[in-house]
What we know:
- It is a single chain.
- A hairpin with a 2-residue loop joins β6 and β7.
- This protein is 32% helix and 14% strand.
- The chain has one domain: 3-Layer(aba) Sandwich (Rossmann fold).
- The chain has 234 residues and is of the alpha/beta class.
- α3 crosses α7.
Amino acid sequence: MHRRTFIKSLGALGLLPIASKVAAQTQLQNDYDFYFTRLSYESGDWEVDERTPANILNSLIEYTTIRVDLQERVIALEDPQMLMSPFCYMAGHRLVEFNPAERQNFETYVRNGGFVFVDDCNHDIDGLFARTFEQQMAEIFGEEALQKIPDDHPIYSSFFKFDGPPNTGLELNGWGDDLVHDYLKAIVINGKIAVLYSNKDYGCEWDYDFRNKRWLRVDNTRFAVNIVVYAMTA
């Protein structure tokens, strides 16, 4: 099942309010294929890298034929409305400690076909975001659920071709271990990545100010295109 149709399965299971089922299906089928959801959560600084969503959406328009809603949506993880999203983004560099509603929605979303890209902003020397997020995943999905993905994983060729995860100029200290990691981690459900987890601070790299052209290397948002295409088609 493609992720664009996972909302229907949630509805069939009675996991969405009736009004939400209708709204979600109408939006996805008639208006556009994709919208960008940023998840807010109580414990940490989720409101980081403000231009990242706009730059990703711009790249999707530039490189693909995906019908894109240009408006970023910020939805609380504890709000059942997040279950309707075709793609969710979660980031920060402080504590991650889900409250009961956040934990329930995260698990329901992931286990029923959702896709979450989680990016550690990587600016704390003790790896607080990494340590606490990984602990949350272990408690919800099991100690061994979060695993490295190989460099030949389909996500690296879903649109552009990569030999593995592209590096950034902002990989400061890995997961608090002073290492730059050459891999990403993921939780796989039914053979598909459901949670993609990075410590490379892609969000900050994608927070490029196009108007002021603060820095310019190879268009690193191309990997964001791969992530979205994989999320929508796997």
